[in-house]
Amino acid sequence: MPALADVLDPAAVKLDVRVSSKRQLFTEIAGAAARVAALDAKTVLTALSEREHLGSTGVGEGVAMPHARVDGLDRLFALFWMLQRPIDFDAIDDKPVDLIFVLLVPAGAETLHLKTLAKVARKLRDPGTRGRLRAADDPKVVWRTLTANGSRHEAA
Question: Which terminus of the chain has a lower count of CB atoms within 10 Å, N or C?
Fold first, then answer.
């Protein structure tokens, strides 16, 4: 399984993203993914929307992890965005979200998809990690926080 540093490019980390709804967020994500990963924005938007229709990817504590399989993608592709203001996301805890980790995967990469999501979920479940992300004002610091190996106790 690739390391998060191999899936999440530092340039794919954005802070202070301004969106007012989940729909607008997905449209912006689709456009960004299309530009960076040479995909069709409509294909990405459809894939994310169809997955979200199955159930919210808002996992709680202000975190959402939208993900989808996308035809034409040849490798895992991730984005991490921190929203300027939290938005309603129909999260499992009914709290608005401000930390968005997006994972797009090639069709047929089911095991890799699930293992990568689990790795990211473990990292974002940690209150210390979420606090460091929200306190950061530099995308490089956010990227290093997300891609650091081990737990916060091992890093200390």
Answer: C
